[in-house]
Amino acid sequence: MSIAQLAGQPKAKRILQYALTSGKVSHAYLFSGPPGSGRMKMAMAFAKALFCTGGGDDACGECLECRKFEHGNQPDLHLVEPDGSSIKIDQIRELQRELAYRNTAASRKIYIVQRAETMTLQAANSLLKFLEEPQSPVVAILLTENGQAVLPTIRSRTQWVPFMPLAPQDMLQTLADEGVPQLPARAAVQLASGLEACRALIQQNGFAEMRNVVIQLGKDSLTRFTAAMMSAQQHIFKTELGEQPQLLLSLLVLWYKDMIHFQAGRHEALVFIDQLDWIGKHAYSRSAEGWVKCMEYTLEAGKRMRAHVSPQLALEQLLIRVQEG
């Protein structure tokens, strides 16, 4: 995978590709951003490009160094991750010993530290000495969810590379490229934070079935209270789906939101795109404000469930409120 092929993160890409084309590669980088924003994949793509002998702003994928990297046969790449809950001083000392050996054919050595904020104070101070006296062919890439949690002295000696939460459209495109079916993916990217969480949600038992139940419930909730209640009883509370009431409500919010998207002419934004005909016939049965109310009622039902109100009772009250408008 090259830098250009990764989803989103235009600012991070610009910083790293400029370093590659200008030859002004820093001795240390701090990749900071939320889970699922692709920091590790970007670090690996950047490392591959740094080893690449093809020149340019990305890995060529064809030179010997690129092929070695792709086959996991790059001895000058070192990965450090927490041992238990933290990165300990012995791990940093071991890294320093490995980096002290003579280079092989590669022109530089690279080390990637995952969850850098978990370094113990001793480990961080040991790494700091290493950063203060950089060996020119060594590049450090520190990864963290929270750059502010890393020692200020380490932050000041690294180039900050910000990572943003991936936009749903970027995640949707990546999932489509991976062959993930469009319908569950459109829902997952609105509910989960980051690609890994999306994949986990889609693979979860009952996710596709829950989506179908929400479509039926969403339709029945508008005019057929009895049918909606029977549907909830039969397909949710008498099955394993009843164990995930919050997921049900999250999907129901997206259903009502689709009505607003349709009214605004944003058909491409519809989550339940396979229900376009039905949505087209019913989206104007309420005003945009009316649909916002339905979303608010659904979110309130979620709050009540978290306050230990029976999910069945909370859902019944939600359906009554939606019926009454």
From TrEMBL:
Molecular functions (GO terms): 3'-5' exonuclease activity; DNA-directed DNA polymerase activity
Signal peptide: none
Keywords assigned by UniProt, alphabetized: Nucleotidyltransferase, Transferase
The protein's Enzyme Commission number: 2.7.7.7
Presence of the UniProt keyword Transferase in the record: yes
Gene3D superfamilies: P-loop containing nucleotide triphosphate hydrolases
A Gene Ontology BP annotation from the UniProt entry: DNA-templated DNA replication
Nucleotidyltransferase in keyword set: yes
Pfam families listed in its UniProt record: DNA_pol3_delta2
Protein name as it appears in the record: DNA polymerase III subunit delta
Organism classification: Bacteria, Bacillati, Bacillota, Bacilli, Bacillales
